[in-house]
Every structure is written in structure tokens, then in C-alpha cells.
Design goal:
The structure holds two protein chains of two kinds.
Chain A (H helix, E strand, L loop, with lengths): L1 H7 L2 H5 L4 H38 L6 H12 L5 H20 L7 H17 L7 H15 L6 H7 L6 H5 L2 H7 L10 H15 L15 H9 L11 H17 L1 H4 L2 H4 L2 H12 L1 H12 L8 H6 L3 H19 L8 H17 L8 H5 L1 H14 L6 H15 L1 H5 L6 H16 L1
Helix pairs in contact in A: 5-6, 5-7, 6-7, 11-13, 13-16, 16-17, 16-19, 22-23
Chain B lengths: L1 H11 L20 E3 L6 E3 H8 L4 E2 L8 E2 L5 E2 L5 H16 L10 H20 L3 H14 L1 H60 L5 H49 L52 H5 L1 H5 L4 H13 L6 H11 L7 H15 L2 H4 L1
Antiparallel strand pairs in B: 1-2, 1-5, 3-4
Classes of the chains: A mainly alpha, B mainly alpha.
Chain lengths: ~425, ~375
């Protein structure tokens, strides 16, 4: 199918589609790497603190070091991948809320893109490393840009609750873009839904065109009659147009929330997502629509039908996939409606995440705003009375920062994959031995 | 008078007597002898007319039973009939075995081919193994009809281009001569005019200026001639460049005609021929890489879909003026409705993970990137 080929060329398929297993494994790896780093960083921080205190108070008690360390390791309790997932889900929902803060509210598609950015970002980064609170507004702001919905940064910052400055919002921008591997294209199911509804409306008015491979056997009139003879899904819908609108609306609601907060985008294609949501909204209608595309309903006992429909294999496979996707979408419950979940989340975010936040990553803005930092340092130096050297001082500081960041700039596009992987493998091997 | 006849016979080396009608040049001074490459028996023109005018007939020479046709008779080129015969055979064989050097893998193979050709010619000339050689040759000719034709055409083309080039060069030489003559004449004319001018000025001027006028006239002449010379140089260079480019173009032309398609790489008779790959006929350029832009598999696009939101746009000139086309919207929405419907990520991605080596464009790649980002930013010295 040519449409599938076109989709296969998209970055969403090439880079951001996973099987359930690989998704899980990826998150587990990200989590374990991040936890190791967090532990190491916290230990370093404590060491630094202790050495500072010890230098003032004198020699520490010998022999207590090892005990201390063991105790600390117990103390630092990192998030599990599942907990991380909860956090990301929660902040995904927060993006939807944040979008409402603006007047007019941000378009659904911008919010959906932002949510996907956030989710993609946290596939390879852990909330322990970068707090979602910092990343979330940045993802949303990035989405307004990539989805062509212009908002100035100042305007945007005003909508973000709390003491968030414009600089805070764009500080992690490059980091986010890098983690997105600079693929900003997110294929959403929304427009596809509009297309499907549009075609169903056309069919209901007798203007539907059958799919190309079914062209000779079906006429628009056939389609219309078949559509009108569908069993009514609910008693409330009286006309077909009404029913389609109803299905359209509820599908859209599912796509707006359930499809965003779950892993649907990673596991299924947009076409599959909207059709699954449609199945949830109005099963007979959706099944009818699928049949117009993939050949008539299959009577499992008759082998002739099997021969007649060349898309039989595709159809059966697709139906199971759609069923899986529907189940995934249906299982979604918003945090607000789930008291217990909200509670655990509060525990995770409020306590655990606070304690296991990587201290070295807390200040993204400070890391990124080098010129500003250098200027500040220079200004301080100037204030100290060395006004004559301020210019060279500034240069020197900038150079120093550059040198320090040398390794980072080299990895602009993510560093060498091969060495990274071999390192990882070695690490795994060491762990196994 | 036998002595006279002897003298005649000796002088004319028995060429002068037609072996068929026995008439001699003595009696018929206009007598011309003709031969037929079938048997190379020679006879006079009148005999040919007499015997073969009414269609093919047997050779009148006793013991020769070849059937000859009148149109094959021709004048003898070489005095020695054996040479004549060999040249004919050679021409025929060369026409069939007309492989060119560039068709062979190596110089060695080409040399082998030349030797083989000589051998065949020698066989035919000396009558050893004629039947076999002849049948080989025929078979080869039948098998390699196309390449033989192509090579013949090539040869003809080369010959004609050579001729053309020669006439072209002659023409150029003529033009150059012409130009040189013209130039010489001009120069002389100018010199005369200059002298005249100086004389007239001398006649008109005062006696004191004489030396100055003469010097000036000489200078003008010199300047003119040097200007002319530089101009000529320029023209000559231009022409040379033009000639070079012509020659290059001709060379390229020869090259392109040389690489023609051939049917059989190695024919049975000749060894060491280059394997000729027939180049794939170039496909028309496909900007979509095999995708047909307006072909869709899941749906058929209509010109119009009923939609209460969109229908007003059709009438709204403010929307239409900017070039907004609802058709674009229709095609895009329907495209997105089905793009990827048949992509089963669970299958395809796992397959991709298995087949891809060292994780290029793998999910792990993203992970690697992120790890790199984490590790690079995570150097404690840098961030503290």
C-alpha cells in the first residue's frame, strides 16, 4: 500500500516507533543509567560537603567512611522505570492543562505535539536527571514553534504558572531538541480522523467512492445503503449525520487525552490510533468503514471468501492490532479521576523525586547561559576594581567555559554510537561476571 | 610466321591471347581481359558478353565447372592472378572477421585474433581445410551479424570522417595561404600609402621639418604593422583553440559510437573478446522514487466532500484569493487517515532491530545519544 510506504519514510516510524518490549527495555536502560549517575552525583556532593566540614573541624573519625557509604546507598532511593512513567504521564497531562492557560487556548495539535516531545525526551532521559517541571514548558514552547502557532516567548512565559522566567523556559531547549534527535515531525491521528469522517459523510450522502481495489464491485449507492442499514449503536442518534458527528466528537476526545498520555504513538501508527479510537466510539460504524477499505466482512467458514479478498491477511492482522490499540486507549484513566493514583504520584514527585534529583543537573539555565555567566563574572571583577582588565577577563572566562565544555560540544549530534554501545556492553558484561 | 607469333606470345606473356576465343591483342587492340573471382580464369570482354549475356553459365575453360555470372566479372588489378585471388579472399575474410582492438580484453588476445585471421586467410588461399574453414567463417558471420554490421558501419564512418578531416585541413591550408597573401598585399599597400603620405607632407611642409616628418612616418608605419601582427596572433590563437576543440569533439564522437551494444560476448571462433555488458536502458527520471504521486491504495479521492465547515470556503473569495485549495485539504486528510494503516510496528520494528547492524537508526541510537548527552553534561568539574 502506497500510503504505508509514505508513512515508513517518516521520522516517526524510523526513529520513534518501538515494540512494547524494546520500549520497556529502553526505559529500563535509561532508568538504570540515570540512577547510577544520580547515586554517584549525590555521593560526590556529600563527599564535597564532608570534606568541607572536615577541613574546618579537623580530621574525621577514621573507619567510619565505609559505613557511611553503605548507609548513603540505602538512603538514595531512585525511581523505578514504572514510577518514572507515572511522572511523565502526569506531566503530559499537565501540558494539556497548561495549554488551557492561554487565551485563546493552545490548539490541540500543539499540545499533542508537546506531549509527544516530552514523552520522546523521557525515553532517553530520566526525570531524575531533568525534572519534568523544567522540560514541560520548554517542550510546549518548542511545539508552538514547530506547529506554526506563533507565541512570543514573553507571552508564553506569562501563561506558565509559578516564578518561571523566559530564560528558564528556553534554557533546556537545545537539550530537548538534541534528545529528540532533531526530528520535530509528529504524525498525529487528528487530521486522519477528519479525513475518515469526511469520507463517511460523503458515503452517507451517496457520494462515497469505494477504495481503488474494490472499485468495480461497489458503487456509491451500495455503500450508502450498507451504511444506512447498520445497526444503530445507541438509541439517541436519530440520523446518520448525527451519529457520525457523535462518533467524531467522542473519537476526538479519546485522541485528545487517551492517545496522548499512553504509549500509543510509540506502538501504533496514527491511522491505527484513530481507527482504534473510532472503534471505541462507534464500533459498527468503524467496522463498516474498515470493510469499505479492506473488503467485505469475512465469514470464517467459507474459503471462497478468503480467496476473493486479497487483503484478508492484512485485515486479520489489522483487526488484532486495532483491538490491542483500543484496549490500550480504553485502559487510560486521567489522574484527576483516580484518587489512589494521584496519591502515589504525589508521593513519588513530592518526596522521592525531590530526594533523588541529580544535583548536578538542577541548574540547566546556569549551564546553558554561558555568555551571561561570563558577563556576570566579568561584571563582578569590574566591580572589584579591575575595570581595566574586564574585557580580557571576560574573554578568559568565556574561553575557560568553552574548554570545560569541549567534550560536550563535540557530542552535538549524540556522540559516537558505536563506542557508546560497546561501552555499555562491556558494562553489562562486567555486571554479569 | 611462327617467329613473329612467338615474339608476340613472349612479349604479351600469353596475356595477350584470350584463352577462350584465342583472339589476340594484335587483332583486336581494344581487347580487355576480365576475370571472375569464382575461378579467376581470365577471358576477354567479348567472350564474357557472348557467353554470359543470357544468364549464368559454366566457365568455358576446360575442366573448370564453376557457374559464373556476368556481373561478377571485373578487371584484373594485379598482374599475378594469385595475388589477385589472395587480395579478394583477404578482403572477404576481413569483412567478416572485423573485430576491433578495443573489443578485446588484452593486446595479447587481439594479437591472437590477428594471427587466427591470417591463418584462415592462408588456409583459404592455399586450399588447406577449405571446407571446414569456410563453414566456420559462415557460422561466425551468421552468429555475429550485428557486431559485424556495427563494425563495418564504424569503419565506414571512420573512413569518411578521415576523408572529411583531410578535405577540411586542405581547406584550412588554402584559407591560410589566402590570408597570408592578403596580409602581404595589405602591408605593401599600406607601406606605399605611408610613403606617399610622407612625400606629400614633405612637399607641403617647410624644409626644416623634413627629418621630423620622415621619423614620424616611419613610426606610424611601425606601429601599424605591430598592431596588425598582434591582431593576427590573436586570431591565430583563437583558430588554434577552435581546431583543438573540434578535434576533441571528434574524438568524443568516435568514443560514443565505439561503445555500442553487442549481442554475444564470446563468439565460438574468436577467443578473448571483452564481455560486453549491455547497459541497462536508462529509465525515465522518477522524482518520487517509485511512488506514484496520485495513486492511492486505500481510498479514491473525490473532488468534493460534503462538510458543513468547509463548504462555505468554496464560495468565500477571501479564502480563495490567496490560492487556498480545498483539494489540498481533502488529499492531505485522507492521506493521513491511512498513512501507515498497514504498518505493523511490532513486527517491522523488531525485524528492523534484528537486521540493522551496530544500531544505525535504531532506538538504541537515540539512547546512545541521550547517554552521551547525559555523560557529557554530567562531568562534575564542568557543571560545578
Amino acid at each position: 500500500m502506497i500510503e504505508d510506504e509514505i508513512y515508513r519514510s517518516s521520522s516517526q516510524f524510523r526513529l520513534w516507533s518501538f515494540t512494547e518490549a524494546s520500549l520497556k527495555q529502553l526505559r529500563a536502560t535509561t532508568n538504570s543509567v540515570a540512577s547510577d549517575r544520580v547515586r554517584a552525583a549525590l555521593r560526590r556532593a556529600q563527599d564535597a560537603r564532608r570534606s568541607a566540614t572536615s577541613s574546618t573541624t579537623g580530621t574525621p573519625a577514621p573507619g567510619s567512611d565505609a559505613e557511611n557509604k553503605a548507609a548513603e546507598d540505602k538512603q538514595i532511593e531512585c525511581l523505578t522505570p514504572e514510577e518514572e512513567q507515572q511522572v511523565v504521564d502526569y506531566y503530559s497531562e499537565q501540558i494539556i492543562q497548561l495549554g488551557e492557560n492561554y487565551k485563546p487556548p493552545l490548539p490541540t495539535i500543539v499540545r499533542a505535539t508537546a506531549i509527544q516531545y516530552l514523552r520522546r525526551f523521557y525515553l532517553t532521559n530520566s526525570p531524575m536527571t531533568y525534572h519534568p517541571k523544567q522540560i514541560m514548558p520548554c517542550a510546549l514552547f518548542l511545539a508552538t514553534k514547530t506547529d506554526n502557532y506563533y507565541l512570543s516567548l514573553r507571552q508564553f512565559a506569562e501563561g506558565v504558572p509559578g516564578q518561571t522566567s523566559a530564560d528558564d523556559i528556553i534554557a533546556p531547549e537545545f537539550l530537548v531538541m538534541q534528545s529528540l534527535r532533531f526530528t520535530f515531525d509528529v504524525r498525529h491521528p487528528f487530521r486522519g480522523l477528519e479525513g475518515g469522517i469526511m469520507e463517511l459523510r460523503a458515503i452517507s450522502q451517496g457520494q462515497g467512492q469505494p477504495a481503488p481495489h474494490l472499485q468495480p464491485s461497489q458503487t456509491p449507492e451500495d455503500l450508502r445503503r450498507a451504511l444506512l442499514s447498520l445497526s444503530p449503536s445507541s438509541a439517541t442518534a436519530n440520523t446518520m449525520n448525527d451519529r457520525i458527528s457523535r462518533a467524531h466528537h467522542s473519537t476526538r476526545e479519546i485522541l485528545k487525552a487517551a492517545a496522548q498520555i499512553t504509549d500509543a504513538y510509540f506502538l501504533y501508527t496514527p491511522a491505527q490510533i484513530w481507527l482504534s479510537a473510532f472503534l471505541l466510539a462507534d464500533r459498527p460504524l468503524a467496522e463498516f468503514y474498515l470493510d469499505t477499505k479492506l473488503g467485505g466482512p469475512i465469514i470464517s467458514s467459507s474459503s471462497t471468501n478468503h480467496d476473493q479478498n486479497p487483503l484478508y491477511a492484512l485485515r486479520t492482522k489489522l483487526l488484532t492490532t486495532l483491538a490491542n490499540c483500543s484496549a490500550l486507549l480504553q485502559a487510560y484513566k486521567p489522574f484527576a479521576s483516580d484518587e489512589a493514583r494521584m496519591k502515589t504520584l504525589k508521593r513519588i514527585v513530592g518526596k522521592k523525586l525531590y530526594h533523588c534529583q541529580n544535583p548536578e543537573k538542577a541548574n540547566i539555565a546556569g549551564q546553558k547561559r554561558i555568555p551571561a555567566a561570563a558577563a556576570a563574572a566579568a561584571a563582578a571583577a569590574a566591580a572589584a576594581g579591575e575595570s581595566g582588565t574586564s574585557e580580557s577577563e571576560m574573554e578568559r572566562l568565556a574561553k575557560k567555559r568553552k574548554l570545560e565544555r569541549g567534550s560536550e560540544t563535540k557530542d552535538l549530534f549524540g556522540g559516537e554510537l558505536v563506542t557508546q554501545r560497546t561501552k555499555e556492553r562491556q558494562m553489562e558484561g562486567d555486571q554479569q561476571q | 610466321m611462327p617467329p613473329a607469333r612467338d615474339i608476340m606470345a613472349h612479349r604479351g606473356d600469353d596475356d595477350e591471347v584470350c584463352p577462350v576465343c584465342k583472339s589476340s591483342r594484335y587483332l583486336n587492340p581494344d581487347m580487355r581481359f576480365l576475370i571472375n573471382p569464382e575461378c579467376y580464369h581470365k577471358m576477354c570482354e567479348s567472350c564474357v558478353d557472348r557467353i554470359f549475356s543470357s544468364g549464368p553459365a559454366n566457365c568455358p575453360v576446360a575442366g573448370c565447372h564453376k557457374t559464373l555470372r556476368k556481373n561478377r566479372f571485373r578487371k584484373q588489378t594485379f598482374e599475378d592472378i594469385n595475388v589477385e585471388r589472395e587480395v579478394d579472399i583477404r578482403r572477404r575474410v576481413m569483412q567478416i572477421l572485423n573485430r576491433r582492438e578495443e573489443e578485446f580484453d588484452s593486446k595479447r588476445a587481439y594479437d591472437d585474433f590477428l594471427e587466427q585471421r591470417e591463418e584462415i586467410i592462408a588456409n583459404l588461399v592455399h586450399g588447406t581445410d577449405v571446407a571446414k574453414t569456410e563453414s566456420d567463417l559462415q557460422r561466425y558471420a551468421a552468429d555475429n551479424m550485428r557486431s559485424i554490421r556495427a563494425n563495418q558501419a564504424l569503419e565506414a564512418q571512420e573512413a569518411s570522417s578521415f576523408r572529411e578531416q583531410q578535405t577540411h585541413e586542405q581547406e584550412l591550408a588554402r584559407l591560410r595561404r589566402e590570408a597570408a597573401r592578403l596580409e602581404y598585399e595589405n602591408e605593401r599597400k599600406e607601406m606605399l600609402a605611408g610613403r606617399e603620405d610622407v612625400l606629400s607632407r614633405l612637399a607641403a611642409g617647410r624644409p626644416g621639418d623634413a627629418a621630423a616628418i620622415a621619423r614620424e612616418g616611419h613610426k606610424v608605419l611601425l606601429k601599424k604593422s605591430s598592431a596588425r601582427r598582434s591582431e593576427e596572433d590573436r586570431i591565430r590563437q583563437k583558430q588554434a583553440a577552435l581546431r583543438n576543440s573540434d578535434a576533441r569533439k571528434a574524438g568524443q564522437g568516435a568514443l560514443t559510437t565505439a561503445d555500442r551494444a553487442d549481442d554475444s560476448g564470446d563468439s565460438g571462433l574468436i577467443k578473448g573478446l571483452k564481455k560486453i555488458k549491455t547497459p541497462e536502458p536508462e529509465k525515465p527520471y522518477d522524482p518520487f522514487g517509485g511512488l506514484i504521486p496520485n495513486k492511492r491504495d486505500y481510498y479514491t479521492l473525490r473532488d468534493h466532500y460534503p462538510n458543513s465547515y468547509l463548504d462555505p470556503i468554496r464560495q468565500d473569495t477571501r479564502m480563495q484569493a490567496g490560492g487556498y485549495d480545498l483539494q489540498e485539504y481533502y488529499s492531505r486528510t485522507l492521506m493521513e487517515a491511512f498513512a501507515g494503516l498497514g504498518c505493523f510496528i511490532d513486527e517491522e520494528v523488531s525485524k528492523r532491530e534484528v537486521t540493522s547492524t551496530m544500531g544505525i537508526s535504531r532506538p538504541v541510537a537515540t539512547q546512545g545519544a541521550a547517554l552521551a548527552a547525559v555523560s557529557s553534561a554530567g562531568a562534575p568539574e564542568a557543571s560545578s
